Amino acid sequence: MRNAERVGGVGRRRAIVVGGGIGGLAAGIALTRGGWEVKVLERAAAFGEVGAGLSLWPNGLRALDALGVGNRVREQALAETQAGIRNKSGRWLARTDSRELARRFGPVVMIHRARLSEILRAALPPGTLFADTEVIRAGLVGRQVEVEHGAGVLRADLLVAADGIGSTVRRSLWPQAPAPRYAGCTAWRLVVDTGRRVPAGGVSWGRGEGAGMAPLPDGRTYFFCVADAPEGQRSPGNELAELRRRFGHWHDPIPRLLAAADEETVLRHDIFALPPLATFVTGRAALLGDAAHAMTPNLGQGANQALEDAVTLAACLDAHTGVESALAAYDRYRRPRTQWIARRSQRIGSVAQWHSAPATAVRDLTLRLLPNSAFLNAFTPVLRWQPPDHDNLSAAHTRP
Ligand SMILES: Cc1cc2nc3c(=O)[nH]c(=O)nc-3n(C[C@H](O)[C@H](O)[C@H](O)COP(=O)(O)OP(=O)(O)OC[C@H]3O[C@@H](n4cnc5c(N)ncnc54)[C@H](O)[C@@H]3O)c2cc1C
After folding, report:
1. pTM above 0.90?
2. Which has the closest alpha carbon to 209: 88, 94, 302, 296?
3. CB atoms within 10 A of CB 91
4. How far is the CA of 290 from the centre of ligand 1 (A)?
5. Can you say how many angstroms the Cα of residue 394 is from the centroid of all Cα atoms in its chain?
6. Which residue, 188, 243, 305, 361, shows the most beta carbons closer than 10 Å to its own?
7. Residue 183 beta carbon below 6 angstroms from any ligand 1 atom
8. Does domain 4-82+107-180+274-350 sit in CATH 3.40.50.970?
9. Average pLDDT by consecutive 10-residue portion of the chain (400 residues)?
């Protein structure tokens, strides 16, 4: 990694990607494979072990295959064998038929975020990724795009804003876009080593609170909790005590996970979502990932959608001769789908967070009565996604 300031001029078909998260790295790979000269600018000085587990669904894995890294990801991931929804006493309300899901769509896998980031970074050509490079403004200059970072200005033929939910590029180029909204709940994430793998993953729903877990390939457990809370509330140095107070009496192995957890590893983030945008593109700039459609995490699809975005964007650019018409096609393909998934995720989140005892009793009973096939059918539109086909993308209806 080098700092962008030291790179000097750029050649033809140049793209700047702002943000080196999952979406930005994936976009960098996809565009490079499409023949673009790419610079990925990331404000963080280094890529550490920060993060937690991440679920990759069959749609996200297909996007990773299209980027040429699917098998490397599978090698570093663990396929889900048991998941579903329990109540706080551990009674199963709904079980995911993981075998049938894998048969129909391919497996769901869990990976540590740091491993996924490493694999994506390794797939970028050397000299593409510039750490410690914060973009402070973006602009459209004629048919070019421009970004200003701490030490200078870069111009290119395409700008991909993958700088997350608080996107600086979105604030610069989409001044009318609504601000992210607090979803009313906060999430804790941690990776715990209890010395033995948890037998089943899945989520557990209570009243205004929930927890979830998934085994990781290295034997550790990814554990997360969600609770309704005022925005910004924190218990500095005592987040683990707060988790033990709230969830320490929930079903096994939750108390065991909390007993083995280390305060230092607890991440806490309030959950925000971005209201639907009228467009993901302007001039020669496109929003991607959370910058375009940050959603509540209830479907575990945010990063998977960012991967789909990256593959689709590169495919649209490949299929169209003009950047503007390619971006118009990208917007047509990605906006309806991601906004629909965000709405679904938000709806599931609001049911999961219900408070009232009668309402949660009805919810839990309904879940127990639903056949397994209902869950698989509900997921079908999300999971059956395929990387776009060149012929479809260049078809007349995607051309202006
Ligand atoms: C509790 C929780 C659990 C989740 N679980 C899952 C899951 O299991 N599966 C799933 O698919 N999704 C999950 N998600 C969602 C997922 O984390 C996000 O959708 C995904 O990480 C978005 O990736 P991104 O690259 O678009 O944005 P980000 O990950 O936010 O990356 C943006 C990058 O841009 C950089 N950046 C920001 N501003 C600038 C700037 N001005 N200049 C340069 N760089 C900048 C940041 O440092 C960062 O590296 C979860 C989210 C939460 C909150």
Report:
1. yes
2. 88
3. 11
4. 6
5. 28
6. 305
7. no
8. no
9. 36 89 98 97 83 93 98 96 93 92 95 96 97 97 94 96 98 97 97 90 96 94 96 92 97 96 94 98 98 96 98 97 96 98 96 95 95 89 92 49
